[in-house]
Structures are given as structure tokens and as C-alpha cells.
Amino acid sequence: MKSEKPDFMASCDYKVESANWWEKRWTPGARFLRQQRKREDKLIGFAFGRQCRTKPPCRIRFTRLSPRKLDGDNLQGGFKHIRDAFCAAITKTPMSKCGLADGRGDIKFEYAQETGTFGFRVEVWNAGKVRKTPRRLQA
User: Fold this and answer.
1) Residue 19 in contact with residue 79, Cβ under 8 Å?
2) Mean local confidence (pLDDT), 119-139
3) Would you say residue 133 lies in a domain?
4) Is residue 94 domain-resident?
């Protein structure tokens, strides 16, 4: 298979953990950590999405970098909030409805894992139009 260069690629040294593990914790401290983790995931996903100039239809690959690998459902669950926020940013969906943006049929998702230090990478291949001017990341 021919390797294509992505139209957009960004990486971060943020540890992607399985969302399934967090859902089993029920103490108030665990609830606080789960909510904090969800906010962090959304901030990172939205920041990367704002930098991406590609519009749907597109193909997005989320790659987890870690010393150990996760199984398939935990891998996808770990990227849940990042995926939601990233898709909300590239489809210009308000953050209050960011869980709905990734349900469109014109965005295809792939997940991969590589061994290394903790982090993740987002790659986007364009199958549609590209925005004329890049958006600025606002602090």
C-alpha cells in the first residue's frame, strides 16, 4: 500500500488513557479526576482541530504512542473526548454539541499504536476542500 503524506499532522506528549478505566471509579476524588481529564482531552482536541485547515470529507488517524499497547476497544475509548473536540473544531460545531460532530458520515476514523514515550499523533487526509486562510489559535 502506498504511503500518503497527510494534509495535516500534529503530535503532543499527552498520555492517552483508556476511558473505560475511568468509568469504573465511583469515589468523589475519582469523579473529579475523570471530569478534569475530560476537560483536558477536549482542550487538546479542539486546539488541534482549530489548527487543521481540512474540511470534511476526510480521513483521520489517531495514533497512540506508549511503551505498552492497549486492546482495540480501550484504544478507541481513550481517544473519545479528543475525537469529539477535534471533529467539533473542523466542522465548526459549538463545543456544547461537540459529541455530535463525529457522527457525520463524511469523516472516517482510524486508530493505531506505536511503541515509544507517552504521547499521541493526529493525521488528517483531505478528501474535500481546504480552507482558504488558516485559523489562529487563541489563548
Assistant:
1) no
2) 66
3) no
4) yes
Reported as a single tens digit per residue, the pLDDT across 108-117 is 999 999 999 9
| Residue 100 domain flag | yes
SS3 2: coil
Q: What angle do CA 17, 77, 81 make, to 5 degrees?
A: 85
**Distance from C-alpha of 35 to C-alpha of 40, rounded to nearest angstrom:** 9
74: in domain: yes
DSSP character at residue 106: T
Tens digits of residue pLDDT in 28-45: 667 766 777 777 878 888
Provide the domain count of the chain: 1
Mean pLDDT, rounded, for 111-137: 76
Give the contacts of 100 (CB within 8 A, at least 6 positions apart).
Answer: 93
Q: Which range marks the domain in which residue 116 is found?
A: 8-126
Q: Is 122 helix (H, G, I), strand (E, B) or coil?
A: strand
In this structure, which amino acid lies at residue 62? F
Q: What is the DSSP string of 29-64?
A: HHHHHHHHHHHHHHHHHHHHHHH--B-SSEEEEEEE
CATH number at residue 60: 3.30.1330
- Torsions phi, psi of 106, nearest 5? -95, 10
Q: What is the pTM of this model?
A: 0.78
